[in-house]
Design a protein that fits this description.
Chain A: This is Fe-S cluster assembly ATPase SufC. Chain A: Belongs to the ABC transporter superfamily. Ycf16 family. Chain A has 253 residues and is α/β, with parallel strands linked by helices. Helices cover 35% and strands 31% of the residues of chain A. In chain A, strands 6-9-10-3-11-12 form a six-stranded mixed sheet, with helices on both faces. In chain A, strands 2-1-4-5 form a four-stranded antiparallel sheet. The longest helix of chain A has 16 residues. Chain B has one domain. The longest helix of chain B has 19 residues. Classes of the chains: A alpha/beta (253), B mainly beta (387).
C-alpha cells in the first residue's frame, strides 16, 4: 500500500536577494486510492510543493521529511523518484526539440517499467490511450511539447500519467487554461487511473471547477507555505462561495 | 532563445563593415598578395594563429603524406591537371593567405568529372587519410548539366593541411556534398570550399566537423545563372581544446536564386571554441532572392566558447525574403528535469536532448552510412562527456 508522508517540510528558493523560504512546515499524508485537493491562492507555495516532491533542483529542502512507504524520497534523484512511482503532471512542460512524443513515451516507459515494453503491445497501448484522450495519432510524431497548444500539453501530460501508472500522481494546476471540453477529457483520464484504486492523487488547483470532474476525498487549503485548513469535499464548496480571502487576510502565514 | 542571445560563451554581433571591406586583401591566387596575418584582422581574429603550424606565414614546409582513395562509379573521370587548367580556380580565388598558400603550393590539382545527364546511383567517395606532415591540395568537382550526384569527402588521420575544393555545378544539375572532418585531435585543416551553382542547379553541402586541433573551413557559394538553389548544412561537435571554425559566404549575384544555411554545434570541455561566420550578400542584380541562415549552439559544459556572427548585406529591396538567426544556449536544465521526472536517467536524458538537437540536420544528409556514422560519433562524443 503506497503511502506518501510529508512531515514538517520546509523549502527555500535562492533568489538574487538571498534565500527565501516558501514552504513553512507542510504536513500531509496521501494514501493509495485517496485523492487530496490542495487549493490555495496564487503565490501560496502549492506549486513549490509539487516541484519539491519531484526534486526540482531550484528548490532546497531545509527541513522536514518526505517518505514513500518509508523510503526517503528526499535522498532520491529526480529520476529515482519517478521510478519509485512519483509522477508530476506539470503546468508548463518544456519543449524538447528533435525528440518525438513516441520516442519520449517509449524511453520513459522503459525506464519506469525497468524493461522495454514489447513493441506490438506498446503501439496498441499508446494508440488506445491517445484515442481515449481524443488525440490525433499524428501527435505521436511531433516533437515533445513543441508548438503544442495549452490543451495539447495537458493531454500529453495525462497521456504519460495513464501510460506510466504512478503510485503517487501530483497534478499541478492541470486544469488551468483548459476549456470545458479539454477539462472533461483530461479529468476522465485522471479518473481512469484513480478507478484502479492503486494511485494516491494530489490535485493542486486554484479553482474548484476541476473538482466537479475529479471528486476529492480530502480538501486542503494552502496559504503562506503550509496547509491551514483540511476537511472533506464540502470545504471546496465553501471556497467556491467565499474565496481565499479569509486565509490571506488574517495573516495565515 | 532569442537571436544573439548567449550563455556559457560569448556571441559577437555583426560588424558594421561590409564583407568586402572586412577582408585584409582581395581574393587572389598568389600567396604573396596576402600579408602575413598577425591575428587582429577581421578574418583571423577568432583563429589561434600559433596553432596553424606555419600554414599562415610560409613556414609550413610540404613533405607530409596523405593517402587518397577515390571510389568513382563508371563514367566518372579522375584527371590530374596543372594550375593552368581552365577549370582550376573557376569557382573562386582564395580569400585568405592560407587558402592562397595552398593554391601556390600544390603540385597537381585533381579534376573529378561527372558527365552531363549522368544520374549516379552510388556516391562518389573521396577518402583522405593523413599520415603526418604538411600537405597541400586542390580538387575540382565538375558536375555536368542535369547530372545528379552525391559526393562524400572523408578526412581522417593526422596532417597539417591546407586544401581547396571547387564544385562546378552545371545547369540543372543536383549535387550533394558531405564533407566529414573526422581527423585525429592533432590535425590542422584549412579548406576553402567554393561552389559555382549553374542556372536552375541545386547544390547541397553538409559539413560535419568532429576532429582536429584546428579546423577552419570556408564554404562559399556563388551563382553562374538565375534560378540556382544552395542549401548549406553543418554539424560540429567541439571538444576540450578544439578550435572549429566555419566561415560561410553566399554571394547572391544572380536573380531568383535561393539559399538556406543551417549550422548546429555542440560544445563541451575547457577551451572548446567554435566559430561560425555567416555572410550573405544580395547584390543589386539579385532580385527575387530568397535566403535564410541559422546557427545554433548547445553549450554542454562550462568553459566552452562560441563566436557566432551572422551578417546580411542587401543591395536590392526587390527580394522574396532574407533573414538570419543565431542562438547559443546552455544545455537546458529544465529539459533535463522534465525527462528525469519521467524516470529517464540523467545520462540518457542528456543523450536524448543532444540527439534531438542535431536530428533535423542529420536527416538532411541523405547518405545512410554517413548518417549512421554521424549518429555513432555523436554517441561516442557524448559518452566521453558523461564518463
Amino acid at each position: 500500500m503506497a503511502t506518501l508522508e510529508i512531515h514538517d517540510l520546509h523549502v527555500s528558493v535562492e533568489t538574487e536577494t538571498g534565500s527565501t523560504e516558501i514552504l513553512r512546515g507542510v504536513d500531509l499524508t496521501v494514501k493509495q486510492g485517496e485523492t487530496h485537493a490542495i487549493m490555495g491562492p496564487n503565490g501560496s507555495g502549492k506549486s513549490t510543493l509539487a516541484y519539491s516532491l519531484a526534486g526540482h533542483p531550484k528548490y532546497t529542502v531545509t527541513g522536514g521529511t518526505v517518505t514513500l512507504d518509508g523510503e526517503d524520497v528526499l535522498e532520491m534523484s529526480v529520476d529515482e523518484r519517478a521510478r519509485a512511482g512519483v509522477f508530476l503532471a506539470m503546468q508548463y512542460p518544456v519543449e524538447v526539440p528533435g525528440v518525438s512524443v513516441s520516442n519520449f513515451l517509449r524511453t520513459s516507459a522503459t525506464a519506469i517499467r525497468g524493461e522495454a515494453p514489447k513493441l506490438r503491445t506498446w503501439v496498441k497501448e499508446v494508440k488506445e490511450a491517445m484515442q481515449r484522450l481524443e488525440m490525433d495519432p499524428a501527435f505521436a510524431e511531433r516533437n515533445v511539447n513543441e508548438g503544442f497548444s495549452g490543451g495539447e500539453k495537458k493531454r500529453h501530460e495525462i497521456l504519460q500519467l495513464e501510460l506510466l501508472k504512478p503510485r503517487i500522481a501530483i497534478l499541478d494546476e492541470t486544469d488551468s487554461g483548459l476549456d470545458i471540453d479539454a477539462l472533461r477529457i483530461v479529468s476522465e483520464g485522471v479518473n481512469r487511473l484513480r478507478e484502479g484504486g492503486e494511485v494516491g492523487t494530489l490535485l493542486i488547483t486554484h479553482y474548484t471547477r476541476i473538482l466537479r470532474y475529479i471528486k476529492p476525498d480530502h480538501v486542503h487549503v494552502f496559504a503562506g507555505g503550509r496547509i491551514v485548513e483540511s476537511a472533506g469535499p464540502e470545504l471546496a464548496d465553501k471556497l467556491e462561495a467565499e474565496g481565499y480571502e479569509q486565509y490571506t487576510k488574517g495573516g495565515a502565514s | 532563445m532569442p537571436a544573439g542571445a548567449s550563455a556559457g560563451g560569448a556571441v559577437a554581433v555583426a560588424a558594421e563593415s561590409s564583407v568586402a571591406t572586412r577582408m585584409s586583401a582581395p581574393p587572389s591566387f598568389d600567396v604573396a598578395d596576402f600579408p602575413v596575418p598577425h591575428g587582429r584582422e577581421e578574418e583571423w581574429r577568432f583563429t589561434p594563429l600559433d596553432r596553424l603550424r606555419g600554414l599562415h606565414d610560409g613556414t609550413a614546409v610540404p613533405g607530409g603524406t596523405i593517402k587518397v582513395e577515390v571510389e568513382a562509379p563508371d563514367g566518372v573521370t579522375v584527371t590530374p591537371v596543372g594550375r593552368d587548367d581552365p577549370r582550376v580556380g573557376r569557382a573562386g580565388a582564395p580569400v585568405d593567405r592560407v587558402a592562397a598558400q595552398a593554391f601556390s603550393s600544390f603540385e597537381k590539382a585533381t579534376v573529378i568529372s561527372v558527365p552531363k545527364e549522368a544520374v549516379l546511383k552510388e556516391p562518389v567517395r573521396v577518402a583522405l587519410h593523413g599520415e603526418g606532415g604538411v600537405t597541400f591540395g586542390h580538387t575540382v568537382f565538375e558536375i555536368g548539366a542535369f547530372a545528379e550526384v552525391v559526393l562524400v569527402l572523408d578526412h581522417t588521420g593526422d596532417t597539417v593541411r591546407s586544401a581547396n575544393v571547387e564544385f562546378l555545378v552545371g545547369d540543372g544539375a543536383k549535387l550533394t556534398v558531405v564533407s566529414v572532418q573526422d581527423w585525429d585531435d592533432t590535425a590542422v585543416h584549412c579548406s576553402q570550399h567554393s561552389a559555382l551553382v549553374g542556372r536552375d542547379a541545386s547544390f547541397k553541402s553538409v559539413v560535419v566537423t568532429f576532429g582536429g586541433d584546428v579546423v577552419r573551413i570556408h564554404p562559399r557559394v556563388a551563382y553562374a545563372g538565375p534560378g540556382g538553389e544552395a542549401e548549406l548544412y553543418g554539424v560540429y561537435f567541439t571538444d576540450n581544446g578544439q578550435h572549429q571554425e566555419h566561415r560561410l559566404l553566399v554571394d547572391h549575384n544572380a536573380p531568383n536564386c535561393r539559399s538556406n544555411v543551417a549550422y548546429k554545434g555542440a560544445l563541451q570541455g575547457a577551451d572548446a571554441h567554435a566559430v561560425w561566420i555567416g555572410d550573405v550578400v544580395i547584390r543589386t542584380s539579385a532580385t527575387g532572392t530568397d535566403t535564410y541562415e541559422l546557427n545554433r549552439n548547445l553549450v554542454l559544459t562550462d568553459g566552452a566558447r562560441v563566436d557566432s556572427v551572422p551578417n546580411l548585406e542587401i543591395e536590392t529591396g526587390e527580394i522574396a525574403g532574407a533573414g538570419h538567426a543565431s542562438a547559443t544556449g546552455r544545455f537546458e536544465d529544465e529539459q533535463l528535469f522534465y525527462l528525469m521526472a519521467r524516470g529517464i536517467p540523467a545520462d540518457e536524458a542528456r543523450r536524448l536532448v543532444v540527439r534531438g538537437f542535431f536530428a533535423e540536420l542529420v536527416q538532411q544528409i541523405g547518405v545512410p552510412d554517413v548518417e549512421e556514422r554521424l549518429i555513432a560519433k555523436l554517441e561516442a562524443e557524448l559518452e566521453a562527456s558523461i564518463a
